[in-house]
Structure formats: structure tokens, C-alpha cells
Design goal:
Blueprint lengths: L4 E2 L1 H6 L5 H11 L23 E10 L2 E13 L10 E13 L4 E8 L3
């Protein structure tokens, strides 16, 4: 992951009922910079139209950082030469996000299930 991701909308929504949905939408818009591929088993990848489910398990402020622990799940796509069949696998695990409260820059750690 080389792209910098800023989660400004999620930072503003922290502590509100809209936070979880806002975070999900912002991750989907910035998915090139979020290491979702870490959750995919085998040769799978998240795909271009990720069907991401997200559930926040913890939200806390530490110094000037908002820390989020969320469970994510989606369907990973397995590359195939056959256009008639979609080869998919479940992908899930915990995504830990640290959002700098001054810049909204986000850093990610992944904890795939079964790894």
C-alpha cells in the first residue's frame, strides 16, 4: 500500500450513529489504499465492486489519534480464464485503523481470520 488515505468524513462522524456507515463508504471510495487484499485467501483479491460489510467493535481516542477496530467481510475474487463462472471465496478479519485527528491520515493493520 503506497497511497495515503485520509478519512475526513469518518473522523467527523466519530461517536455518532452514522460512523459505521460513513467509515464503510469512505473505505470503499479509497479501497486502493486500504489493504483489503490481506484478508483474501489463496490468489484471491477484493475485486472492483467490493461487497464490504463492516462492524465497528471498538472506537477510542488515544492522544491525537482515533483508533478503530472493525470486523470486515467481503467476497474475494479468484482470477480465472473462464468468464462463465465466478470463482469466489469468503474474506474476513479485523481491520485496525489509526486516524490522525489533525490531518485525518489513516494507517491500517490487518488481522485476517484463520491466518
Amino acid at each position: 500500500m503506497t497511497d495515503t488515505v485520509h478519512l475526513r468524513e469518518s473522523l467527523r462522524a466519530a461517536g455518532t450513529p452514522e460512523f459505521e456507515q460513513t467509515l464503510r463508504e469512505e473505505i470503499l471510495r479509497n479501497n486502493w489504499g486500504v489493504p483489503l487484499e490481506d484478508f483474501c485467501p489463496m490468489e484471491a483479491w477484493p475485486g472492483f465492486d467490493v461487497d464490504l460489510s463492516l462492524s465497528v467493535h471498538r472506537l477510542e481516542e488515544v492522544d491525537r489519534t482515533l483508533r478503530v477496530k472493525a470486523f470486515v467481510s467481503f467476497t474475494g475474487r479468484i482470477p480465472s480464464y473462464c468468464a462463465d463462472h465466478a470463482h469466489t471465496v469468503p474474506a474476513d478479519g479485523f481491520l485496525r485503523i489509526a486516524i490522525d485527528k489533525d490531518t485525518a491520515e489513516a494507517h491500517f493493520e490487518t488481522d485476517p481470520m484463520g491466518a
